[in-house]
Design brief:
With 350 residues, this protein is of the alpha/beta class. It has helices at 25-37, 53-57, 62-73, 89-110, 140-151, 168-173, 220-238, 264-281, 295-310, 318-322, 327-336, and strands at 6-9, 44-47, 76-78, 84-86, 115-118, 157-161, 180-187, 209-214, 242-247, 285-289. The longest helix is centred in the first third of the chain and has 22 residues, at 89-110.
Length: 350
């Protein structure tokens, strides 16, 4: 039986000093201030443990981990034009990964109906096995998914990434496996320049990397339809035992780093679809914070996501009830139908 929803965080997230940078401690401060005001949305709050070296090395090369540690021990460094570390960055990154891993543990232990959210910085989905990039040091959601497969007895994990930037690191890490189905909705063209629709994985992983690029200006009608009409049917066919959301909020209309137009209601609708999917499949669902740089919108949308995930399944809200299948979703259904026959649905009119 599912226990209370769980929220994982750690004070170390505020010690990752990036200076005058969009990925700053103000993000976590805004999220936690909003959650505190609403009683943590009814979630049980947990201080995240650090990830172990063995857990990290299931995803990241030892040389990469050591490079981060050396840069931090030296007092900090500019790893690339976007990614910096300070003296507190390694501790923050270890707890960010540890929070995602602990989230996976608690979700699997709770079983059907269990939900949770891990909110830390730095984010993770750009980090590859051997490179820090795009504000990310270690790939939090990938480490959590790999832990679930290696230690928690699972065989299939769905990662839904709705961050506005393509999660190139997660894609690369799971490129050759069918044990993780990665579905990514992201603006294109945009940093990091990957995530084309034809990128589908290779070997046993062919068809298990699903990219759903959207143009600048895409809003609720695009993102929500892609979740409802592509990601959800894919998940029904795949039958994951755990659903993890790479929950970035930089597709929000207020965000300064991209050009999409998703509203608070749009993120709420996507969260409702994922929640209902978890109940339908009888599997737990958790969110792992990625981007989101308009701090007020970020805080609101994290709280809304958490409230929605923890709520009982309900009739579709006004947005979902009136939303037609978007042309990009229809294109994706056609493109993927040979690999995933179950993805095709009848187009719905408002």
């Amino acid at each position: 039986m599912a226990s209370a929803p769980v929220f994982l965080s750690h004070i170390a997230s505020q010690g990752h000093d990036t200076g005058a940078h969009p990925e700053s401690a103000a993000r976590i401060q805004a999220v936690e201030s909003t959650l505190r005001a609403c009683g943590w949305c009814g979630y049980s709050t947990v201080s995240s443990p650090p990830v172990s070296r063995a857990e990290l090395e299931r995803v990241h090369q030892a040389a990469h981990i050591d490079r981060i540690a050396r840069a931090v021990q030296a007092g900090g460094a500019q790893l690339d034009p976007d990614t910096v570390v300070s003296s507190g960055s390694l501790e923050a990154a270890l707890h960010a990964c540890g929070g995602a891993v602990e989230l996976a543990r608690r979700l699997v232990a709770g079983g059907s109906g269990q939900v949770g959210f891990s909110a830390h910085r730095p984010p993770g989905h750009h980090a590859t096995a051997n490179r820090a990039m795009g504000f990310c040091l270690f790939n939090n959601v990938a480490v959590a998914a790999r832990h679930a497969l290696a230690e928690l007895g699972l065989e299939r994990v769905l990662v839904l990434d709705w961050d506005v930037h393509h999660g190139n690191g997660t894609s690369e890490i799971f490129w050759e496996t069918d044990a993780v189905l990665l579905v990514s909705i992201h603006q294109s063209p945009l940093y990091p320049g990957s995530g084309a629709a034809y990128e589908l994985g290779s070997g046993r992983g062919y068809g298990y990397t699903i990219n759903l690029p959207v143009p600048a200006g895409a809003g609720d009608e695009t993102f929500v339809s892609l979740v409802r009409d592509v990601a959800v049917p894919l998940a029904r066919s795949y039958r994951p035992q755990l659903v993890l959301v790479s929950a970035g909020y930089d597709a929000h209309a207020d965000d300064p780093l991209a050009d999409c137009r998703v509203s608070d209601a749009g993120f709420g609708a996507m969260a409702a679809l994922v929640r209902d999917l978890g109940h339908e499949l009888g599997v737990p669902v958790g969110g792992v914070l990625e981007g989101g740089y308009a701090v007020d919108a970020l805080a609101r949308c994290v709280a809304l996501t958490m409230q929605t995930l923890a709520a009982a399944p309900a009739s579709p809200d006004a947005l979902l009830a009136t939303l037609a299948v978007h042309p990009l979703a229809l294109e994706a259904q056609e493109r993927l139908s040979e690999l995933w026959p179950g993805v095709a649905t009848v187009a719905r009119e408002p």
